[in-house]
Design goal:
The structure is a single chain. The protein is mainly β and 93 residues long. The chain has no helices and six strands. The radius of gyration is 14 Å and the shape is globular. 18% of the residues are buried.
Length: 93
């Protein structure tokens, strides 16, 4: 991850470990605190890694959630109107 310094430049990279191959990332406010978090499908371990925003430009270590075989893509939206996002992941058949 490269944080924007506000002057058109980016900071030195910070790496967040998922544990395997990751093809995409999705950002949304997953915990309702007003800060964007991010999630990454991790195909090697058939899981979804969720990183919560610490509100200081850093993120927590990954919390992994089991998915089906080889998750590829994901999307999050508040489908049920309770002001929390539901995460959907596509899998490889």
């Amino acid at each position: 991850m490269l944080l924007n310094d506000g002057d058109g430049y980016f900071s030195v990279k910070t790496e967040y470990e998922t544990g395997g191959r990751s093809w995409t990332v999705y950002s949304a406010d997953f915990d309702g605190d007003g800060f964007l978090d991010f999630a990454v499908p991790e195909s090697d371990s058939d899981s979804l890694c969720v990183f919560m925003n610490n509100t200081d430009g850093t993120f927590t270590t990954a919390v992994k959630y089991a998915t089906g075989d080889s998750p590829q893509g994901l999307y999050a939206i508040d489908f049920d109107g309770d002001s929390t996002n539901i995460i959907f992941s596509t899998i490889d058949f």
